[in-house]
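Predict the 3D structure for this chain.
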Amino acid sequence: MIRMPWTVLRDKGILGMNQRNAQFISKFNERKFYPIVDDKRTTKREAIKAGIPVPELYGTIETEHDIPNLEKIVAQHEDFVIKPANGSGGNGIVVITGRGHNGFYRKSNDTLVSPGELHHHISNILSGMHSLGGSADACIIEYRVKFDPVFEPISFRGVPDIRTIVFRGFPVMAMIRLPTRESDGRANLHQGAVGAGIDLESGITRRGVWKNLIIDHHPDTGVAIKGHSIPHWDKILLLASRCYEIAKLGYMGVDIVLDRDFGPMMLEINARPGLNIQMSNREGLAPILEQIGNSGPIPDSAEERVSMALEFVRKRKIAEAAARRS
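Done. Predicted structure below.
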């Protein structure tokens, strides 16, 4: 492991939080559209209307009185996910992978929880313990994604997801977030997951970043992170671009999972995506966003936006190669 070379990122135009907030989030994200992405129920409804695949919603719990309905909602499902409708950063999410004896449920880390413990957790969700701003929340119960086997060597007991930064409808940078033992199977960098950059043109993974350290191998599986080709990459980029049409946000992060049975599915949209994606790619966002910002009118077609974004990538690679030769 080696320390992340911040000076390299700075030289490449790393985007800082203040610049992101002032020049991109405040400027391109109208507040009136935030409810579309901040409430996962609304996001799911809008995605379904637009024909964007999402994990199936099994049910919702909105009041303390409704908590005992959990058993009825999941009666036909061996596995499922419980999450706050207005949560962020993976907080409050419980993944149930199966059933144990005496009505107990098995979590993704193989520990067993009782119905009472799940009821208590849902009560905490409703109270706003895991929501944005701590306001009262709702609980959603949905399909548990079964990750594509291609990720098994570089993921520990959890579902990796692909975060793509989308600016003005153009996919501009992507990474895959890989669960670890420390992250308890969650694909969240702040909880200990690994972030691996993805070459936008080829869909092939780059080296990983784990707790601000550059790593070549997954800390739990020992498998090399770099060089994995992500299936359905064209579809993933297209899905990310199409989310611009439902969220109406100029600067956002789109999280997509790759299910072994259903293929790419949009998990959620983030109006305030973090900046660690730059570390994962060892590339700054600022010059890329400037290039997109100067590209003229936004094409109506998601296919055209993706095509233009990839052409920008190719031009940058040619320019960088020429600079290295000179």
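The CA atoms of residues 175 and 277 lie 6 Å apart.
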